[in-house]
Amino acid sequence: DDKTEHSEFIELHNTTSETVALPGWRLSGAVDFAFPAGTSIEPGGFLVVAEDPPTVSSKWKVSALGPWTGKLDNDGETIRLRDQGGEVVDEVDYRLGFPWPTVGAPPSHSIELINPSLENDLGGSWRASTGGDGRGESTLIGGGSSWKFFKGTWEPSATPGAWREIDFDDARWAAGEGAIGAGQGFVATELDEMPGNYTTIYLRRTFTVGDPAAIGSLLLRARADDGFNAWINGTHVAALNVSGPELPFDAVAERASGSTSFVDHPIPNGGGLLREGENVLAIQLLNRSIDDADAFFDAILQSNVAAGDGPTPGFPNSVFATNAPPQIRRVAHAPKQPGSGEEVVISALITDPEGVATATLHYRVVAPGSYVRLTDRDYERGWVEVAMNDTGADGDAFAGDNTWSAAIPAELQRHRNLVRYRITVEDSPGNSVRVPYPDDPQPNFAYFCYDGVPAWSGAVRPGVTRRVTYSTETLTSVPVYHLIALESDVMGCMYNDPVGTARTYRYHATVVYDGEVYDHIKFRIKGQASTRVTGKNKTKWNFNRGHRFQARDNYGRKYPEKWDKFALQTGTCPWWGRDTSTGGMVLNEQGSYKFYRLIGVPSCNTHLFHLRIIDNIRERSGSQYEGDFWGLYIALEEPDGRFLDEMGLPDGNLYKMNGS
Q1: Which of 46, 135, 199, 278 is most deeply packed, by most CB within 10 A?
Q2: Cβ atoms within 10 A of the Cβ of 336, count?
């Protein structure tokens, strides 16, 4: 999310039991990178390729290949892994927003596969690196367990390193419970003769694994003094205060350092080290010197421990789970924008290899004048639950096609109603998920029930000039934007709240245009000296990541880039000191930007639209100044990074000149 920090990376994982050699392989698509000679990924291993390897190494303490050419677009890209013959070995076409994770804003989350066995072309297989919930966590070795140990008075095996292997015969070794050592009151197996006689202790502890594929990460929690090396099935996995992994029986730790509490040592590639059945954790404990009075060791080995927040390049993914929740995608409602009295069917494509047990639709009707903000306590209240089905009945079109459906009754569809909904699904083993996902800033789907724009009548000077009626056809000759909000928020933004809050997006609302509902947006007043000078004020709307606004120009054509935010210009002059209309100024601002474009100066897009605000139960009243109709406005594109993309300009800093 820091655009000045080149910290993008791609992580490859070898899920096989064989080393994969990568000479001649390359990444293509969004980025291009050729793997150098000698590159390989060990069984269960990880390989990181980075935009800028020194940055990634410094930030996450992991080695990375690179740099690559190209970039990873936050809105989505295609990444391909090709072998030496150019054939596509794997491909990911990621996107931003449901069903894909919504990332790219602080606090720097990457997208991660929940489990390497999942289809990586499905958005639901990925989640933001917010840390796992510990699903599938288990303890393989508990604290205070019984260990086999050997006093380091000579080498523990005739063949160097043989004592670390699973098939080593440790029958003649002594046995004792952890902690094992000397010099501390909590030591369970005391070796009082260690000081002055030997500096090392060798330990082995076997443990059983039923399904190695179900283990994505390992965590060694060690209580040790002064140093140690650790191996799992003969592979070195952790170290503390030692000069290297291959040390003789009379070696010593590099310094006097220890902890009476358990300290975490995450094990990269942990799942790939294990085998079905018996495994072994082997330890060489080292004291600082032969005369040092204390030395001890105990350990806990856990699998699939809930990870912390943030990316984990070079390590198992933080969101790893052995049983991933069901895949939910293609969520839709039909009709897209219903009218009064029309039944609405909510549907979703739902799949799970272990079977879908239940799917539940939750919906809530938000009536005109009773808007509920995301920040309100009432947001979580009043949701109605309806069972979804795939039986070809009760709103479902076809039985057994994995598209689950439920109907929202026709009598609930009333003019100007906003209907929010979300879906919870549970698989046969009981693993459940609700969508939209927690990383989505819009935690519900929604649709808007509308019967059409009514005619409007008004006069430039009521009671003095002639009253004119504008037909529905006239009012809809330009796009119609609806803002749904609390009346207190609309009045506060437009007229009442202190000017000092003008720059803060403090008001919540829903925007509807072109059949799309942009829920939980934020808006604010706009302007400096012109703020709240007249009855018709400028505002600015700010849309959520993954739910950007798709605007159209004055000819109905979609702009190539969606908008993060835009200004609502009034087309009037706030300093016009006369009692006559300034309506002619609606052309001035648009004309200026058009002129700039004609002479080759990059400038913001503009278009006209008709604004309607629903903040009251009544759509119309006897006064032309009340009701949903707010008149003609100009949409002004925000000059930001998306503006640079729209204009075909390179990435860089964009400055706004302001007179003082």
Answers
A1: 199
A2: 13
Q: Which of 491, 462, 454, 453 is nearest to 616 (CA)?
A: 491
Q: Which two tokens stand for residue 255?
A: 């310094």
Residue type, 128: A
pLDDT band at 134 (very low <50, low <70, confident <90, very high): very low
* pLDDT 10s digits, 326-336: 999 999 999 99
Confidence of residue 316 (pLDDT cuts 50, 70, 90): confident
Mean pLDDT for the stretch of residues 435-449: 95
Q: Which of 79, 97, 292, 120 is nearest to 191 (CA)?
A: 292
Largest CA distance in the chain: 110
Annotate 196-220 with b (16+ C-beta within 10 A) or e (fewer). eebbbbbbbbebebeebebbbbbbb
Local confidence band at 192 (pLDDT 50, 70, 90 cut-offs): very high
CATH 3.40.720.10 assigned to domain 327-448? The reply is no
Cα separation of 376 and 508, whole Å? 10
* Other residues' Cβ atoms within 10 Å of the Cβ of residue 556: 10
Strand locations in 83-217 (E):
88-95, 111-113, 126-128, 138-141, 146-151, 174-177, 180-182, 189-190, 200-209
Tokens 């006239």 label which residue? 474
Q: What is the DSSP letter of 563?
A: B
Query: Residue 365's beta-bridge partner residues?
Result: 419
Instruction: Report if pTM > 0.85.
Output: no
Alpha carbon distance 64, 315 (integer Å): 12
Query: Residue 589: CA atoms inside 13 Å, Cβ hemisphere, count?
Result: 21
What average pLDDT does range 414-429 have in this prediction? Answer: 96
DSSP state of 644: H
Pick among 3.30.1370, 2.60.120, 2.60.200, 2.60.40: CATH of 9-128: 2.60.40
**Residue 458, CA atoms < 13 Å, CB-side half-sphere:** 15
What local confidence, expressed as pLDDT, does residue 267 receive? 81
**pLDDT tens digits, residue range 365-391?**
999 999 999 999 999 999 999 999 999
Average pLDDT over residues 633-643: 89
Residue type, 495: Y
Rg (CA), the chain: 32
Cα→Cα distances 220→140, 163, 280, 281, 599, Å: 10, 20, 13, 10, 66
Q: Which CATH class is domain 138-303?
A: mainly beta
- Fold match between domain 9-128 and domain 138-303: no
Stretch among 32-46, 84-98, 107-121, 225-239 having the lowest mean pLDDT: 107-121
Q: Is pLDDT of 620 > 80?
A: yes
Burial of 507 (0-12, 13-18, 19+ CB in 10 A): buried
Average pLDDT, the chain: 90
